[in-house]
Amino acid sequence: MNGMNIDDIERMNTAEHLRTLKALREALCREPTEPESPDWHRNFLEERRRKIESGEAKFISLDEARLRLQR
Fold first, then answer.
1. Does the pTM of the predicted model rise above 0.70?
2. Is 13 part of a structural domain of the chain?
């Protein structure tokens, strides 16, 4: 690691943040193995699939999701 800390990151402007995110994504894509998903993530997705298949799932529009996030 190059010694970057949270203070360094907070001093970055938006363009620098985006360049850093791009570099991190590219570095992760070159990793030879994928990280394993945690069990809680698999369980969450399985439960979501079960609800969809059983008809229990409720869907909202993208506009409604945006409104909920703004609250």
1. no
2. yes
CA distance 38 to 45: 11
| Euclidean distance between CA atoms 15 and 11, whole angstroms | 12
Q: How many domains does the chain have?
A: 1
1 within a domain of the structure (yes/no): no
Q: What percent of the chain has pLDDT over 70?
A: 97
Q: How far apart are CA 28 and CA 34, in angstroms?
A: 9
Q: Convert 8-40 to b/e letters by CB count within 10 Å (16 or more is b).
A: eeeeeeeeeeeeeeeeeeeeeeeeeeeeeeeee
